[in-house]
Amino acid sequence: MPHPATFGRWLRGAAPVLSPLLDELLWRMVRRRWEMAGGAPRWATIVMDSTVVVRYGLRQAGAEKGYNPKKPGRPSHHPLLAYVLETGDCLGVRWRPGSAHTAGGPRRG
Fold first, then answer.
1. Burial tier of 78 (Cβ tally within 10 Å: 0-12, 13-18, 19+)
2. Phi, psi of 4 (to 5 degrees)
3. Per-residue b/e over 29-41, b at no fewer than 16 CB within 10 Å?
4. CB 89 within 8 A of CB 33
5. Straight-line distance from the first to the last Cα atom of the chain, in angstroms, rounded to the nearest whole number
6. Contacts for 68 with CB less than 8 Å, ≥ 6 apart
7. What does each of the 109 residues of the chain score in pLDDT, given as a tens digit?
C-alpha cells in the first residue's frame, strides 16, 4: 500500500500536464450542460469572489500567512473564483497566496 503522501507528490509533479487537461475538462462540462439546456445563456454576468483555504503543512506551494479568520497565523491560500451568475457555473479559479488582498483582483494569465 503506497504512503498517503505518494499521491500528493504525484499530483504536484503532474501539475504542468494535468492543469491544462482539467481546465479543458471543466470547459467541456460547462459547454455540454449549456447544450443540454438549449444553448449558452444570452446574457452572462461574471461574479468574482474570494475565499480563504487554510493549509496545515508548512511547505504547501504558494501558501503564505495572511488574513485567516479561522486559524490566524496559519499559512493559507486566498483563491479568486469566477462564476456565471445566471447559471452558477464556475468558470475558473486563480490560486493566490494567503497574503493576497481581496481587492487584489484578477489579472490576465
1. buried
2. -55, -30
3. ebeeeeeeeeeee
4. yes
5. 39
6. 52, 54, 74, 76, 98
7. 677 677 767 777 777 888 888 888 888 988 998 999 898 888 889 998 888 888 887 677 778 888 888 888 888 888 888 889 988 888 888 888 888 887 776 665 4
Q: Which three cell numbers stand for residue 72?
A: 490566524
Backbone φ and ψ for 81, nearest 5 degrees, come out as -115, 145
Q: Which residues have CB under 8 Å from 34's CB, separation 6+?
A: 40, 41, 87
Q: Which residue has the cell 493559507?
A: 76
Query: Rounded to an integer, what distance in angstroms lies between the CA atom of residue 41 and that of residue 22?
Result: 23
Cα 53 from chain centre: 10
* Beta carbons of 75 and 55 less than 8 angstroms apart: yes
Q: Which amino acid is at 55?
A: R
CA 68 to chain CA centroid, Å, is 17
Q: 101 φ, ψ to 5°?
A: -80, 145
